[in-house]
Sequence to fold (628 residues):
Amino acid sequence: MIGMIYDRFQEEAIKYINEGHSVIVSAPTGAGKTAIAEHVIETCIERHQGVIYTAPIKALSNQKYRDFQKKYQDTIGILTGDVSLNSNAPVLIMTTEIFRNKVLDNPEELERYSWIIFDEVHYIDNPERGTVWEESLIFLPEHMNVLALSATIPNIGQFAQWIESVHKKTVKVVIEDKRPVPLHFFYQCHNQVFDNLNNIRRTRVYRPNTTNSLIKHIRDKDELPCIYFVFGRKRAEYLADELYNFNFLTEHERAEIVDMYEDLVRRFDLENEKSAVRMLPLIERGIAFHHAGMLPTLKEVIERLFTSRLLKVIFTTETFALGINMPSRSVIFDELRKFYGTYVSNLKTRDFYQMAGRAGRRGIDPEGFVYSRINLARTRVDEARNIIYGKPENVKSQFNASYATLLNLYEKYQDDLFKIYPLSFHYFQTKKQQQREAARLMDAKLKLLKESGCIEEGFLTMKGKFAKAVYGYELLLSELYGQGVFEKLDEISLGIIAVSAVFEPRKNQLFPAGLSKDTIKIKQISERIYFDMRRKESRARIYPFSKMPYFHLAKAMECWLNGMKFQKILQFTDTDEGELIRYFRMAVQILREIKDAPISPELKGRITKALHYISRDVIDAEKQLREG
Fold:
């Protein structure tokens, strides 16, 4: 970029890029990795070459689309499953899942793209979705170069060597350990603030930490604005309400932020939304909360207010730290433990620094401040020391090929697909026993696909071609297809089966009463199919089991498809409104995948109608981006 002054690591990465090498960059959050991505984008635009930018979550993809569109205008497009805007653009933003699907299903569509940028590539370590990154890199077209951006990972050299071994070309590694804005660490314990962990002692009389005293300390030290990370949505709202007696704004700032809030609320059609009305008294004091259970449009309003620097304290969950450019002067950790999918554990050092890295705004703050609240009944001092001062964890492969991936590979390689596994990062970094188990698991899945009629005499059947189109829900949906169930479903039933396939209830979540006879029938058929295939997976020692369909949102989806307003359908579920929107949008993605599968024109027509009925008002993800 003309006139841009780069740091040492940025210059090094750009030099390698200009020489035509693939590059992996490991640097702390806030160090300036995006500038390297922008160099690739601008170079590709100048040379009339295509470039793809992938992000791990849709919220980050949407934010990058907005940011890049301001800079590069019509050259930017986005494709995320529930959003497709300017999808033939030379610079295309997408989730990594969409890229993986293209690599396997339609690699010819990638011929015009010379670069792929993987943001947050350490997501390859994610137990649920890491396989997607691994498959994307294994099957990457030879003509594409890679720019991989990551938080600090110690084994980045091993990661680069693996990619080199697969693609037989040099991958340059660029490492930056220092942050441009240094961080200072403090600890709240016994309701006091310490600057050294060694000064914290166990006492017989324990004084509980209070939020008010810590926020007052930070305000008095002139360390606002502040991002306060919590690991629960209700907790975020509770703590924001607890701060209500504080007022962080001057009268002029209050008038300015209220004007901005009301304007954004009007623009995003939130004037009659209870959640937007509930937020206003907090906004007037420079306080807000932000989490995945909120309306996506209200989350965007809060993000815009925060970038204006008028919001002084925001209580938020960890997704606020993932790539979204929302730096502050201070960061607070409500605690140093979190839920990792199936268990509660101490924070990983890498996760701690992903969030802590939001402290200290480059070019604004000479330093950043990080406060950790320590409850000695839950976290020992030595545990806190390991989290904050320990070595970041190595990235480990989570490879577990999906049924859809195996079907795509079988279509190309037949039984030679087992030669693919030795190309994986899992094979590269694990021992013989783990390698044998991974190969056994692939073999067991392939046998089950043959047994279920997806493969016959060395070829994919129509059922198999259907299954390979619906990543993550292959066995259930392909069996419904194979038994002719889909062809009998109307638009409402199609929406119900789609949302039930993707929905994952919380512990003790309520099940709605009053399901229609048609819904009960679909539920019974789906559950019979599911438990039959689960028995087969259990016998074959396939794990984790395929996802079970849950019909908790069936009534809400039925009413939505019948034209009911969004606020009224909330009475049929205890799912948060933002979460409900997310699941409805996931249902849209599933229906689009089914529509692209080999189905009858009549079924395609009904799916088209269902998509039209679902994708309206707040569920229409494209509308939010267009109007935003």
Q: What stands out?
A: The radius of gyration is 25 Å. Residues 187 and 193 are 6 Å apart (CA to CA). The longest strand covers residues 183-189.
